[in-house]
Structures are given as C-alpha cells and as structure tokens.
Amino acid sequence: MPKVCAVTGRRTRRLTTSRRRGSAKRKGGVGLKKVGVHTRTQRPNLQKKTLWLGGRAQRVWLSAKALRSLDPTLLAPPLRAERRAGGR
C-alpha cells in the first residue's frame, strides 16, 4: 500500500533547489549564474489510522490536515451495543 493520504491524496513530492553565484543586475552586478541544482523530497505528515466504515475497521494513511477535518466518530470504535445489534 503506497503512502498516500486516503482523503486528500497527499504524497511525497520531488522538489529542486538551485545554488546561484554572483550579484544581481539591479544591485550593479553582472547577474546571477546558476551553479548547481539539487533534488530533495518533501514528505507530508502521514499517520496510519483505523477508520470505522460501515461497521468494519479499515486502516488507512491520513495526512494531519485530513485528520483535523475528519468526523471524530469515524475514528472511534463502535459501541458494544451497536456491535451486538449488528450481529457481531
């Protein structure tokens, strides 16, 4: 199972950062020269949580943003009386 948020679809992103040398033309220089490009990864704050969907437990990855916006009753286990009434 890939590490992707089940609600928002957030996943690891690949970014580039660049190093520059020189001074800007607006400061009287000859301009900035790009001397190196590096890649880095940006990972979302994913947490493994158990959701109760249709009376069944399902473990999914959730981002912190999705966790804040989620209905709290989906995270809590169902009550025993409800489970007994459902046949379990």
Automatic annotation (TrEMBL):
It comes from the Bacteria. Residues 10-28 have a biased composition (Basic residues). Residues 1-30 are annotated as: Disordered. InterPro entries: Ribosomal_bL28, Ribosomal_bL28/bL31-like_sf, Ribosomal_bL28_sf. One of its GO terms (molecular function) is structural constituent of ribosome. The keyword Glycoprotein does not apply. GO terms for cellular component: ribonucleoprotein complex; ribosome. Keywords: Ribonucleoprotein, Ribosomal protein. Belongs to the bacterial ribosomal protein bL28 family. This is Ribosomal protein L28.
